[in-house]
Amino acid sequence: MAATASLTQLSPIFLASKSHKQASINTKVGTFHQNRNGFSLRRQILKGLAIFPLTSTTLLEQPLPSQAREVEVGSYLPTSPSDPSFVLFKASPKDTPALRAGNVQPYQFVLPPTWKQARIANILSGNYCQPKCAEPWVEVKFEDEKQGKIQVVASPLIRLTNRPNATIEEIGSPEKLIASLGPFVTGNSYDPDELLETSVEKVGDQTYYKYVLETPFALTGTHNLAKVTAKGSTVVLFVASANDKQWPASQKVLKAMLDSFQV
């Protein structure tokens, strides 16, 4: 009886030990399957890489956005035929969504070779609303830390007039146009008292309105130059901006850029 009792008392320990061993075996089996699956997955990945190798050429085909933004335009744009101290930017369908959609006619302007092209947020680029945008959008933007920045803003003609393919004169006077587009010059608000000078320029059949503004509260800068025209279904606005520190040395450069703008 004593032997039986001892055996009975030891049985739970024996069973627990047996369960522990079985669990250990199950764990090892599970680990084996997991490792085998992992090995199989790795083998498939390696097989895929063998078919489509990631060569250094593949990795370098597309430059990093940060690198592309840091390139001076003089390294890839041609010298301006009219002034060798500038380079010439001619917008083409590859440059913006609106040009690809045919909503904006190609435009051009000169800029110093040391300037760099800046990124435009998708919400401002018009990329999300082409081919029919209800509000103005930013086409391109260039900047230089010492001299200022420029941008091209496009607006649907329907926002300013119901007349299809209207000329800038048919839309209204220079004062009327800047009252509508002023916030897109300053980046926030427009006060008629900020307008210092207006002028009208004719280049062939195309008419341009030009503006000089002093904008102390503008997000774009305390000094703004603007030039606007209408062509097709779009009004196109060129804006050159500088702060008080940049303006004394850069105003001649910015005016030359403004004068060169054509659609």
TrEMBL record:
Pfam families: PsbP. Residues 106-263 form the PsbP C-terminal domain. GO terms for molecular function: calcium ion binding. GO terms for biological process: photosynthesis. GO terms for cellular component: extrinsic component of membrane; photosystem II oxygen evolving complex. Gene3D superfamilies: Mog1/PsbP, alpha/beta/alpha sandwich. It comes from the Eukaryota. This is PsbP C-terminal domain-containing protein.
